[in-house]
Every structure is written in structure tokens, then in C-alpha cells.
Amino acid sequence: MKVKKYNIKGSTKISVIITLIILLIFIVALFCMESIPKSEAVTKTLYDCKQRVTLNYGFELKPNTVYEKNYLENIDVILNKYIKQMKASIDYNFSSSDISNLTITYKANITVEGYTGENESYLSIFKKEYPLIKKNTVNTDIQNTKLNQTVIIDYQTLNKFIKDLKKDTEIFCQAKATIMFDIETFINRNNKKILLKSSPYIIIPLDSNYSQIISNLTNEATDKIEKTTNIAIPKRRYLINLYIIISCIVLLLIVAMIVLTNGIYPSKLSKQRIRIFKKYSSRFISINHEILIDSTNIYEVETIDDLVRISDELSIPIMYECFRDYRKINKFYVLNKDNAYIFDLISNKKEMFKWKEAKSY
Fold this sequence. Notes:
Blueprint: E1 6-9, H1 10-35, E2 38-61, E3 71-73, E4 77-79, E5 83-96, E6 100-116, E7 123-142, E8 145-153, H2 155-169, E9 174-189, E10 192-198, E11 201-206, E12 210-212, E13 214-216, E14 218-233, H3 237-259, E15 261-264, H4 268-280, E16 284-287, E17 297-300, H5 304-314, E18 318-321, E19 331-335, E20 339-344, H6 349-360
Parallel strand pairs: 1-15, 16-18, 17-20
Antiparallel strand pairs: 2-3, 2-5, 2-14, 4-12, 5-8, 6-7, 6-9, 9-10, 9-11, 11-13, 19-20
């Protein structure tokens, strides 16, 4: 059985087939991307821990008429002549998600320093360090733990030391005492190691009428052990099935365009006719009836360009007989009283050669 084919413009057929092929490639690419196994990285916390160290300080006072209490805690400014002694203590708290091996190391020092200037002009003249708590180490297997340590500082002895030093050296400078606690926690959890550090401190001016205290009282340190694993992402079957259905439809359309259609392409004569009208349509006059030639002399020109030049010289328009089927328009005329000039598109081979030559460029 002979299959009926439908005539369509050749360029339209090619454009549709190319578009469908591109669409098919795009859908196949989406299908391949969706079919490839995918995974995502998931991070799981196996162990986490937190270390919090708080430094508290206070002043035991001599009898005086200024302060109502004999002991002041965490005060920012104090009159130095009423200080009897100073206390500093740390509260260490460690918490974690599970039992692990801890090695806790801690110590405390006081540093007495004479200096001058501030910021960029700061100059340390002398510095001396004294231990308040010697280095201690605690090793234990535990999940949560606490530690408290207190030291007593003889503030007046420090003041006397600074005054005597200035007198002996005849150096007049500012002085301060820095009390610092250094605490390190080393955690060993299934051969995974974590180190947490905290260094709270207070700074107290010496050899002055009053002290404005600078402090960093609370330090927190956290860390954790994590494990990252790749988990397979389930394939979206509905999308894969959809891509298969669309691909089949597009493939059938491509086959149908190839098998069931005839591409109609314009002949060389039609292309030449179109070229002539594109170039010279403004020079032509369409006649709706048969053109009768009464001229004595009839000349057939070789090219449409020749006919255009004759039209320009005689100042006479070029005429052609109008047909519903444009393919019947093959003759163009320039007519005057005695002469008739005709260009016949079918019989003239030179114009066809010219068109081919022009196309090659």
C-alpha cells in the first residue's frame, strides 16, 4: 500500500527535523543525568565537648569608711590603700556527649611589669613572673567534670616591691600585675584527639591611688568529632519514565517528518525570478492583461541588467504580465513606438549562468 506523502516547504522540513533532533538530544541528556547514581555527603557528629572556664576575683579590705562590705567581688575600680589581700579563683566545667579519656593541665602565674606609653608607643621596661599554682595534671576517664582552684595574692607586698624597685633604679614608670590561669584539656576519643585551651586573666595597676581592673573572666572552647558518609540518593522514577515517553514521541515525529513529507525546494529558475524581483521590483509595472507588441523592431536582451539600462535611457518603465501563479512570470518588456525590448527568463541561459556565478561568491 502506497503511503500518502504531504508536500511542505523544504526549508521548513529541514528546520523541523533539526529542532526535533536537538530536542531529542536534550531529553536524552536529561535522562542520562537522572539515571546516573547520585549520592550526598551526610555529616554525623560522633562526639562533642565543651570547656568553660570562669575567673572570679575579690578584695579583702582593711577597716575603712568608704566601703560598706569587708569583701568586694569582681569590682571594676577600687581604692588601693584599703586593699588587704586579693583572692582569685577559677571554676572549670567540662561537658561532653560521652565518656572519654581526659588529660587536664592547669597552672597560674602572676606577672609584675613596669611600662610606659600605650598602644603603638607601649614600652615594657621590666617584667618578672611568679608562679601562683604550679603546673598540675589530672588524668581521668569521664564524661563531665568540674574543677575549682583559689589563690591568694598579697597586694600590699606587690605594691611595696614596685615602690622599692622604682626607688632603687630611679625609674618612674607605670606598673601592673597580670594574673593568668592557663588550662588545657586534651581529649582522646577512639584515637581521635582534641585540644581545648582557655586563658582567663585580670590586670591590676600597682603603685597608684586607685585601680581600674581589666579582665577577661570567661573563656569557652568547643570542638567535636565528625564522620562524613556518602548516602545514595534514590532515583526519581517518574522523571525517568517521563523522559522515555517524551523521547519516543519526538523520535516518532522525526520518522514521520522523514517518511510522510516531501520537501519542496524552489527551482533555480524560481530562485532567479525571486532575485530579480528583490533587486528591481520598484522598477516594474504589473499588467493585468496580455501584453501585445505593435513595434516594428523586436529585440531580445541577454540579461535583466541590460533591460534596466535600456529602461533608464528611454525613461520607460519595465512591464510584465501578471499571473496568479508567479512561476508563469518569465518575460519582461520595455516598449516604445518603434522598438520592443524583451528579456525572457526561460530562453536566456546567460542570466542563469550569471546567477550561478554570483551564488558561488
